[in-house]
Amino acid sequence: MDEYRRRNREHWEELARIHPGTNFYDVEAFLDGESTLRPLECEAIGNVEGCSMLHLQCHFGLDSLSWAREGADVAGVDFSDTAIEAARDLAAEADLTGRARFLATDVYDLPERLADAHGTFDLVFTSYGVLGWLPDVEAWAEVVAAFVQPGGRFYIAEIHPVSHALMDLRLDTGVWDRPGRTSATVRSNSTRKERMPTRTPQSNTRRLTSGPTPRARS
Ligand SMILES: C[S@@+](CC[C@H](N)C(=O)[O-])C[C@H]1O[C@@H](n2cnc3c(N)ncnc32)[C@H](O)[C@@H]1O
Questions:
Q1: Radius of gyration over alpha carbons of the chain, in Å?
Q2: What is the pLDDT of residues 96-137, one digit of tens each?
Q3: First and final C-alpha spacing in the chain
Q4: Residues with a CB atom less than 6 Å from ligand 1
Q5: CATH number at 3-186
Q6: pLDDT for 193 beyond 90
Q7: Residue nearest to atom 7 of ligand 1 (CA)
């Protein structure tokens, strides 16, 4: 493994130890039934009931598990052993092990690690903070293409890295925040993601199952 990949992985191992305890990721709300997905990806992707999904660079699995709650059969992949271990623990705690599995591997090694076992997927998904860490985007795109089944879809929602130049990386939590904030907590309306509604009987009317019909390819 080259020096860049080694150091990048070390960085993410460290963040995977810190992030689950931060309010930014809000594991407690997830376990209470709240989805971590945003309207942007939910509206674009639509109904995922019964959909096989490969989630690349899934971190510790909150979004993967949120998709599983919506009915997808999800395989989450990340190169941080710590993140994958946390994702598996959360899957068990949320009673989602039947619909979500996690694999610790560098995404570039995925064709050797996954090909025979799982073939291709209806949807390859990845989001928010993934491209900027990759040493070779073209090779990564080839991995993506190898796992989208004919007629399937690839979906990405990404943040422009320039936005990070306008924010501070909080060293206590490892999350990005508005410049100059010094308080000890990261939870605030301005830093929390815009979430899908909590899964209550009332909000079920806004679940993905009532969303737009999936397109053949995006
Ligand atoms: C910003 S996080 C993704 C966060 C995710 N969107 C979320 O909200 O939970 C980027 C993830 O990419 C993973 N990653 C970076 N390079 C990778 C690689 N080459 N192979 C696999 N995972 C990688 C990191 O371990 C990290 O979990």
A1: 17
A2: 999 999 999 999 999 988 865 568 999 999 999 999 999 999
A3: 34
A4: 8, 12, 57, 59, 62-63, 78-80, 83, 106-107, 127-130, 133
A5: 3.40.50.150
A6: no
A7: 59
